[in-house]
Design a protein that fits this description.
Layout (H helix, E strand, L loop, with lengths): L1 H23 L7 E9 L5 E7 H22 L5 H27 L7 H22 L10 H26 L12 H6 L13 H4 L11 H21 L3 H19 L14 H14 L1 H4 L9 H8 L2 H19 L6 E3 L9
């Protein structure tokens, strides 16, 4: 019951956050978080490095996904240090893959793909768990097993991606088709509810020329679907139903990816099926067989244990480092620039 209450409370907070994001983030004001002067252009101005809200929201999504991962794995009595042995290489590989796969598929250097990051993490996660089990003795309590670990990773990723779609609203990327080009049912459903992005530096403006036009709010719909199914998976996990949680969240999240790609207007690569759709279908097949291949001892999660694992100085510092690292990695804009000037406000001296 405590896990259900927690999931419902988090869902209510998320609904308020999404409501605010849909009303606010498409505006021009909410793309750039800061501009840092890096070198002088001349006597009175500096060339600036833009730090985006895309990086800010992405960092928050990564951190919250990490929180869910720690709580779920910690609820099984697994020590945080044992989880770190798996998460450090997993995040390193998936973080790099998010840029490499996007570069390969979209032929652009300065972009990221969450789909590619998830796919690479899903592929290596079972083998990291098996390798860690063979190389290192558990520091305390039971050892981490493949199916609960994979279920926790998929659930945490799904919630993280759902929250990360707020970053896409802010930057104007991953945008939907113009409402005028959508089927009549969608036009009626989203009439006066479409996103209208403003600002020449939004990706929808310089890549799609769709700024100022009502477009399908696919980022918000995707966010709601993923966070909703992720919270359901969290509840199922905390009931000890690891395989059910894995199958439910994996199939719906990746099935939604396959469908939602057809509603997007940004370039997703060529072919009848995009590379990301192929990855999603492969992920369902690959991850779906894990509960059939790997046995799981009867484990009963305890939410109090998971929260206790989270309330640890080392864990808190690690989450802060993760947030800051993602902010620097994903928040430094390479496709926009700024010119900064400073002056003295004489009447305030």
């Amino acid at each position: 019951m405590s896990a259900l209450i927690l999931a419902v409370v988090l869902a209510l907070f998320y609904i308020l956050l999404l409501w605010w994001a849909c009303r606010t983030l498409p505006g021009e004001r909410w793309q750039m978080l800061a501009a840092v002067p890096v070198r002088k252009n001349g006597r009175d101005s500096w060339h600036g490095l833009n730090i985006t809200f895309y990086g800010f929201f992405s960092a928050g999504a990564f951190m919250i996904a990490g929180v869910f991962m720690i709580v779920m794995i910690g609820s099984l009595g697994i020590a945080p240090i044992d989880l770190l042995l798996i998460m450090a290489p997993l995040l390193s590989v998936s973080g790099l893959a998010s840029r490499w796969i996007a570069r390969l598929v979209e032929k652009k250097k300065q972009t990221f793909t969450v789909a590619g990051a998830f796919f690479s993490a899903l592929i290596i996660m079972p083998w990291l768990v098996l390798l860690a089990g063979r190389m290192v003795e558990p520091s305390s309590g039971p050892s981490l097993e493949v199916v609960p670990a994979l279920a926790a990773m998929i659930i945490a990723y799904t919630i993280g991606e759902g929250l990360g779609r707020l970053a896409c609203i802010s930057f104007g990327c991953c945008y939907g088709k113009p409402l005028a080009e959508c089927p009549a049912l969608l036009q009626r459903l989203f009439q006066n509810r479409g996103f209208v992005f403003s600002g020449p530096t939004k990706k929808i403006a310089y890549a799609g020329g769709l700024d100022g036009q009502p477009v399908l709010p696919i980022q918000a719909v995707t966010s709601a679907v993923l966070v909703g199914i992720g919270l359901l998976g969290f509840y199922l996990f905390m009931q000890g139903r690891f395989a059910v949680a894995l199958w439910t969240v994996l199939s719906i999240s990746q099935g939604w990816r396959v469908f939602s790609e057809t509603l997007r207007a940004d370039f997703r690569g060529g072919g009848r099926l995009t590379a990301y759709q192929v990855m999603a279908l492969t992920a369902v097949a690959y991850g779906g067989v894990a509960p059939l291949l790997f046995s799981t001892a009867r484990l009963w999660p305890e939410l109090a244990l998971g929260l206790r694992a989270l309330w640890n100085p080392g864990v808190i510092i690690a989450l802060q480092v993760l947030w800051f690292t993602v902010l620097l990695y994903m928040g430094r804009s390479k496709v926009t620039a700024s010119t900064i000037s400073f002056h003295v406000v004489t009447d305030q001296i």
